[in-house]
């Protein structure tokens, strides 16, 4: 009996979904079965063929095929990267409502298959779509996760690493809140190794300053707009972020990642799904870490949560 079977189903084989699949194949060893599902079946079939042809060059073997919703039955993780694009003149809320319909056509059949694993959502607006998945699936909140601000956090660490000329892996910092315009960096929580960056900024023997931090935060917040302007969409970074989260789950890593998770009183909020540092392991959310925010940071977090609440309340489920 093979006890090390790790099966992932990807729903939505567009740019984001396939960037994830490509990263999964290239990093190797994360899972050994990948099923591709899309409303455009031919596309899913073509993508499966294309990926399979690269397996001879990959680190480890994987079974990859275009499948059906019934294939979700024994999957460990269902990743959702399906969505529709904004039409001309369409409001964000109209788009959101159409994506709710897309999710209705996905989450119902996944649950009906007998799926008993973890949902990981990447479709935007990701915090809302994660909550929609939670409401439609009626799964426990620990088993419904969104990519949240994981990509934004990676962007932040990259920029801070560049600024301080330090390996981004030694920068401990998070972008929290909505994956969108109201997200922010709690500066009080930014560390270079174990040294608070606020201490480095207060030391006038160096050239580092708070204004530069604000600029970096703005660069993170507007990164997606810039990339979309240049190449229409963003997908490699988010594909790798999804891969990272999948690896943390299947490897039972208990890694801290800023996913979109349901708050149950943490940060003085409940019921919303929002990007927060979260311990992720085999069963999904193990624990939400509650950072010690300053009053000003707490206000920003509260405001970001209100944005998400308003959007969700405007939807018909
Ligand atoms: P895309 O248009 O390339 O792909 C979307 C795919 O979804 C298409 O293949 C389409 O056929 C499929 N689809 C549509 N309706 C479906 C349905 N009912 N069932 C199954 N499949 C269906 O788009 P993309 O660039 O891959 O982006 C996908 C989503 O990811 C978007 O919502 C985008 O905003 C989001 N995104 C999220 C982040 C993040 O940080 N979370 C970053 C970038 C993009």
Describe the structure.
With 317 residues, the chain is an alpha/beta fold. It has 2 domains: 7-146, Rossmann fold; 150-313, Alpha-Beta Complex (L-2-Hydroxyisocaproate Dehydrogenase, Chain A, domain 2), CATH 3.90.110. The protein is built from 9 helices and 12 strands. It has helices at residues 15-27, 41-52, 92-112, 126-137, 150-164, 197-202, 210-231, 236-250, 295-313, and strands spanning 7-11, 33-37, 63-66, 77-80, 118-121, 144-146, 171-172, 191-192, 195-196, 255-264, 270-281, 284-288. The strands form 3 sheets. The chain has a 6-stranded parallel β-sheet, with helices on both faces. A 3-stranded antiparallel β-sheet has the order 7-8-9. The termini are far apart. The structure holds nicotinamide-adenine-dinucleotide.
CATH architecture of the largest domain: Alpha-Beta Complex
Task: List cofactors, ions and other ligands.
Answer: nicotinamide-adenine-dinucleotide
- For this structure, what is the CATH class of the largest domain? Alpha Beta
Largest sheet, if any? Answer: 6 strands, parallel
What is the CATH third-level topology name of the largest domain? L-2-Hydroxyisocaproate Dehydrogenase, Chain A, domain 2
Distance between the termini: 42 Å
Number of distinct beta strands: 12
- Gyration radius (Cα, Å) is 20 Å
- What is the assigned CATH homologous superfamily of the largest domain? Lactate dehydrogenase/glycoside hydrolase, family 4, C-terminal
Helix/strand/pairing class, anyone?
Answer: alpha/beta
Oligomeric state of shown chains = single chain
Helix % is 40-55%
Number of domains: 2
| Number of discrete helical segments | 9
Overall geometry comes to: globular
SSE pattern, N- to C-terminal: EHEHEEHEHEHEEEHHHEEEH
**Range of strand content:** 15-25%
> Poorly predicted ranges (pLDDT <50, ≥5 residues)?
none
Question: Which strand order spans the largest sheet, edge to edge or round the barrel?
Answer: 3-2-1-4-5-6
């Amino acid at each position: 009996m093979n006890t090390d079977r790790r099966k992932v189903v990807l729903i939505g084989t567009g740019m984001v979904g396939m960037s994830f699949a490509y990263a999964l194949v290239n990093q190797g060893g994360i899972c050994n079965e990948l099923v591709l599902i899309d409303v455009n079946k031919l596309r899913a079939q073509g993508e499966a063929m294309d990926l399979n042809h690269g397996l001879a060059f990959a680190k480890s073997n994987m079974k990859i095929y275009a499948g059906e919703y019934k294939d979700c039955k024994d999957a460990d993780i269902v990743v959702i990267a399906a969505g529709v694009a904004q039409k001309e003149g369409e409001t964000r809320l109209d788009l959101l409502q159409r994506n709710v319909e897309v999710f209705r056509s996905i989450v119902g059949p996944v649950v009906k298959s007998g799926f008993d694993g973890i949902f990981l959502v990447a479709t935007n607006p990701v915090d809302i779509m994660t909550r929609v998945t939670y409401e439609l699936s009626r799964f426990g909140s620990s088993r419904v996760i969104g990519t949240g601000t994981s990509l934004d956090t990676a962007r932040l660490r990259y920029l801070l690493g560049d600024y301080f000329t330090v390996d981004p892996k030694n920068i401990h910092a998070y972008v929290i809140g909505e994956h969108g315009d109201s997200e922010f960096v709690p500066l009080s929580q930014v560390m270079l190794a174990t040294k608070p960056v606020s201490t480095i900024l207060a030391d006038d023997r160096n050239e580092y300053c708070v204004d530069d931090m604000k600029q970096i935060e703005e660069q993170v917040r507007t990164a997606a707009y810039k990339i979309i302007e240049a190449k229409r969409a963003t997908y490699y970074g988010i594909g790798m972020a999804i891969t990272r989260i999948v690896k943390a789950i299947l490897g039972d890593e208990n890694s801290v990642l800023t996913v979109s998770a349901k708050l149950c009183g943490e940060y003085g909020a409940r019921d919303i799904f929002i990007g927060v540092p979260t311990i992720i392991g085999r069963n999904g959310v193990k624990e939400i870490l509650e950072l010690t925010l300053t009053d000003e940071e707490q206000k920003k977090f509260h405001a970001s949560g209100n944005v998400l609440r308003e959007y969700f309340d405007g939807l018909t489920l």
